[in-house]
């Protein structure tokens, strides 16, 4: 990546090896053409997409065995898109999405690095309706509830892009916004459950992180 220093990582997910090119640290910021301003990304947040986060690894592990048969799947805020790589290796119908200007190039490189076909990518700012994206049977994301307004943005996005009997899998490291999201999504007819999980070996119970699973039965939406 011109102008950036990167590192290569090897991660083991679901008993398989995945290689990732990531940014070498969290302090890199280059914006000669104003892409950060156009996307509304601050210099402090610019390099965060390019790191493998614990929540992303938890989601990827969940996707290594999740039922994907016949499902069109969308990953939100994909960053380095580890879960999308896992799903692509499993032969899923997966679309990765993010609004960071560098996400698509890292995705393309990392898919090739793992010997995978190119993964569909969609530039998706959450607040902007996009009629071209369509609807999905399974929508996933990791650490995407990190600001107060994200619960409302994401629940509105589900209204636009989730099929009537859709499933949602959201991994949250405990940033305090998941309850707002669950309340909003239950109002849309979803049934939700959660599994508390250790994201770091140093964590002790009760673990702050959780895997949220929500499903909207077809019978609810059809009535």
UniProtKB/TrEMBL annotation:
Provide a Gene Ontology MF annotation, just one. methyltransferase activity
Asked if the record carries the keyword Electron transport, the reply is no
GO annotation (BP), single: methylation
Membrane-traversing stretches: none
Read off the CDD domains from this record: AdoMet_MTases
Entry's Pfam families? Methyltransf_16
**Keyword Methyltransferase annotated:** yes
Q: Which domain of life is it from?
A: Bacteria
Q: What is this protein called?
A: SAM-dependent methyltransferase
> Which lineage ranks, top first, belong to the organism behind this chain?
Bacteria, Pseudomonadati, Pseudomonadota, Gammaproteobacteria, Lysobacterales
């Amino acid at each position: 990546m011109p102008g950036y220093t990167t590192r290569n990582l090897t991660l083991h997910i679901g008993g398989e090896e995945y290689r990732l090119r990531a940014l070498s640290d969290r302090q890199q910021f280059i914006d000669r053409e104003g892409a950060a301003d156009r996307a509304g990304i601050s210099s402090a947040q610019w390099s965060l997409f390019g790191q493998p986060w614990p929540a992303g690894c938890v989601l990827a592990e969940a996707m290594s065995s999740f039922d994907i048969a016949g499902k069109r799947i969308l990953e939100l805020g994909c960053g380095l898109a580890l879960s999308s790589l896992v799903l692509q290796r499993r032969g899923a119908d997966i679309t990765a999405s993010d609004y960071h200007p560098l996400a698509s190039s890292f995705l393309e490189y990392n898919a090739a690095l793992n010997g995978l076909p190119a993964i569909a990518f969609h530039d998706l700012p959450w607040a902007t309706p996009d009629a071209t994206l369509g609807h999905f049977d399974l929508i996933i994301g990791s650490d995407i509830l990190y600001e107060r307004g994200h619960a409302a943005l994401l629940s509105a996005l589900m209204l636009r892009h989730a099929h009537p009997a859709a499933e949602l899998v959201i991994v949250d490291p405990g940033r305090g916004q998941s309850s707002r999201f669950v309340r909003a999504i239950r109002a849309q007819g979803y049934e939700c459950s959660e599994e508390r999980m250790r994201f770091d070996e140093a964590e002790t119970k009760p673990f702050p992180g959780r895997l949220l699973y929500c499903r909207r039965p077809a019978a609810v939406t059809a009535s």
